[in-house]
Backbone:
């Protein structure tokens, strides 16, 4: 016969295991091939987003929203034929894969590359190159688009620039409201 204290411990243990199981299931709620969003007829898959972001803390919805905002600016920059090729080449040429840290030390960047590479069945070195190229392209298109619209940040004071940036985001979302569909809500 199980005593009252042991039943409570057992129930507590079952509760914890169930919570962990449900939390784990939630992370894989969406398959990599599933559409996270569509921006101007361009499908953005869950896998595309997961390939660039670690989604282990349940923040997929927020990351999708931010990715959509960024995608709108990337597309706007591409429409304007903004050239960023030199920036991408510089980033790839200047990149050095991080070395293994000394025993007992952590290297979060290297850990991220290894974890993401494992998910994508790539070597960490190949993933690092993929990641640097993709994120540099997105960052540079976004940066150039914003600079073309607002100028560089030092041309305005920080608060004024941030207000103008928020206004730019809002206007883009209004402009594209009929051309954006977010499926991860």
Residues:
């Amino acid at each position: 016969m199980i005593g009252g204290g042991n039943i409570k411990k057992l129930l507590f243990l079952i509760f914890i295991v169930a919570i962990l199981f449900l939390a784990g299931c939630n992370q894989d709620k969406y398959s990599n091939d599933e559409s996270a969003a569509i921006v101007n007829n361009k499908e953005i898959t869950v896998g595309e987003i997961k390939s660039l972001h670690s989604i282990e803390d349940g923040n997929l919805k927020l990351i999708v929203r931010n990715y959509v905002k960024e995608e709108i600016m990337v597309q706007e920059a591409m429409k304007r034929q903004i050239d960023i090729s030199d920036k991408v080449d510089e980033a790839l040429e200047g990149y050095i894969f991080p070395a293994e840290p000394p025993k007992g030390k952590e290297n979060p960047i290297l850990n991220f590359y290894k974890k993401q590479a494992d998910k994508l069945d790539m070597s960490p070195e190949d993933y690092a190159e993929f990641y640097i190229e993709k994120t540099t392209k997105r960052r540079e298109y976004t940066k150039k688009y914003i600079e073309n619209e607002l100028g560089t940040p030092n041309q305005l004071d920080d608060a004024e620039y941030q207000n103008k940036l928020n206004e730019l985001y809002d206007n883009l979302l209004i402009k594209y409201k009929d051309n954006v569909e977010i499926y991860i809500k």
In short: DSSP finds seven helices and three strands in the chain.
